[in-house]
Amino acid sequence: MPDDSNLTPERSDFIRDMIGQDVAEGRNDGWVITRFPPEPNGYLHIGHAKSICLNFGLSLENAPKARCHLRFDDTNPVKEDTEYVDSIMEDVRWLGFDWGQYLFYASDYFEKLYAFAEQLITKGLAYVDDLTSEQMREFRGTLTEPGRDSPHRSRTVEENLDLFRRMRAGEFSDGARILRAKIDMAHPNMNMRDPALYRILHAHHHRTGDAWCIYPMYDYAHPLSDALEGITHSLCTLEFEHHRPLYEWLINHAEGLPSNPYQREFARLNLTYTVMSKRKLLFLVKEGHVSGWDDPRMPTLSGFRRRGYTPESIRSFCLAVGLTKFKSLTDVAVLEHTIREDLNKRALRAYAVLRPIKVIIENYPEDQVEYLEAPNSPDNPEAGIRQIPLCREVYIEQEDFMENPIAGFHRLFPGGEVRLKFAFCIICKEVIKNADGSIKELICTFDDTTRHGKKPEGRTKPKGIIHWVSARHAIDAEVRLYDRLFRSEEPDAGESDFLEDINPDSLTVIQNAKLEPSLKEATAGSHYQFERVGYFYVDPKDSQAGQPFFNRTVGLKDSWAKEGLKKS
Ligand code: ATP
Ligand code: MG
């Protein structure tokens, strides 16, 4: 059941306070118009979710005089693709947000953006430069030294207009010329030292085709697109703080803009054990380190979705992280906690043995089958009960047996006694080995008087309770255990290549896990808690009717048995 309770929670932060004040003062007639402006050059990641929850959240909180636009900042044709456009729309919707009719593309404004550029040239505020990019870097100066004026800076308006038009007409090759704002080469903020506005790029654009061979720079297109759409509050991440003066310069100098937006910055989301840059994520995909953008180990929204994260849990997480102006690193355990809380409520319980060892209960009648009742969700009686079959042979986890038990091991060992959950207690009589010395099966006996939780007579009550699956009834399924993709907390931080930090054990595929028979009909996209093992999701891509594949979403907090399986 989708749950939209945390779409508009009560909260306060510096952005909301500021917007609240604007509304109270009647700025923009009390309207709050925000935008989420992804560049379609990759799939959305969990960092984007923070921005989506903020921008779309604000529009819901300030309704009816509010809305949030989805705008594709598609100004770099070389890296962009419609595959990304489609995935971004799917992911925003999946998170629970809707842009309604307010879907925009920066490329829709190319003609207008071009006209503003001519306007700036005419006002003497922009010029065409012929310096190479290397020369431009040299002329730019440093943080401690002012830059120098380009020799082309003093071109006349006519000359600039002519050259700019010829740039558009395709007369020059890539990189031969560039349009720059004419601001101040000695400005203390490097972004104000005559920043580039337009570059020549003979490249096919996924929407405008070959209509253009000059493309606006992000820093130029972004503020003007905001203003053209009537955005009131342009919220972005801290890296753009130093671009704010340019944002304001453009808004102030372009004439005829329908609105007067302002930009404010908040800290981006960073997660431990995670890389978040799209460039690096693309690299992981292209080089085959993961199976695709939706690989369940990826921090992309499509990866989290395929792993079994719910939109509610990701929204709760964004809420928990909050908004600040300070760089920070969030522990990925916070995210794992959020999804556990959510799945604890919604996941049905089931029995699965991942690494089986066969137990033969020798005093149990050979052809008998009995059915034991198990609740589908212990905290939610409405979810009902199901019947779990039991017969003479069952599978238990290898980890629940130790031939030579260490001190404090309370599960099964030779001569030891353990409870099979919902059934009865068994005692291990004998260990049968294969020729190579590995364990083939365990011969046990059961005590019929220990059903319904009754303690054995004359013996101490076994401390261990383990799960099991009837061998005759079990179905085989592929189960994938995912672990962190990187080994260190900050794979991005060091000098060395982030690829060297990849966790070689981030994926363990178990081909023939033994599952309780009801799971044969598990439908793609449903959540289960395999008791004592973890939360699992029926893979929506690979599963077919009658043949489910299970992705581990997250391990369990050691919950009902103290000697629960070690988190693997
Ligand atoms: P990346 O740095 O991962 O390549 P980006 O900033 O280039 O991301 P965009 O498509 O331009 O990606 O991002 C769209 C919006 O999402 C921007 O407003 C950006 O500020 C925001 N955003 C991107 N990454 C994060 C993050 N880690 N935390 C919060 N917001 C983010
Ligand atoms: Mg960007």
Read across the widest sheet, the strand sequence of neighbours is 10-23-24-25-21-22-11
The small molecules bound here are: adenosine-5'-triphosphate, magnesium ion
Examine the secondary-structure arrangement and name the CATH architecture of the largest domain: 3-Layer(aba) Sandwich
How many strand units? 25
Question: Which bin fits the share of residues in helices?
Answer: 10-25%
- Shape category: elongated
User: Could you tell me the radius of gyration in angstroms?
Assistant: 31 Å
Percent strand:
15-25%
* Sequence stretches where pLDDT stays below 50 over 5 or more residues: 558-568
Which class do the helix and strand fractions yield? Answer: alpha/beta
Q: How many strands, what sense, and barrel or not for the largest sheet? A: 7 strands, mixed
Report the CATH superfamily of the largest domain: HUPs
Question: What's this model, at a glance?
Answer:
This protein is of the alpha/beta class. The chain folds into 3 domains: 1-264, HUPs (Rossmann fold, 3-Layer(aba) Sandwich), CATH 3.40.50.620; 270-346 and 477-568, Ribosomal Protein L25, Chain P, CATH 2.40.240; 350-470, Ribosomal Protein L25, Chain P (Beta Barrel), CATH 2.40.240. The chain has helices at residues 14-24, 46-61, 82-94, 110-122, 133-139, 157-168, 218-229, 244-253, 278-286, 301-307, 311-321, 332-346; strands spanning 32-36, 66-72, 103-105, 126-129, 178-181, 196-200, 214-216, 233-237, 262-266, 348-350, 352-353, 356-361, 370-375, 385-390, 393-397, 417-420, 425-433, 439-447, 465-466, 469-470, 475-482, 507-515, 527-530, 534-538, 549-554.
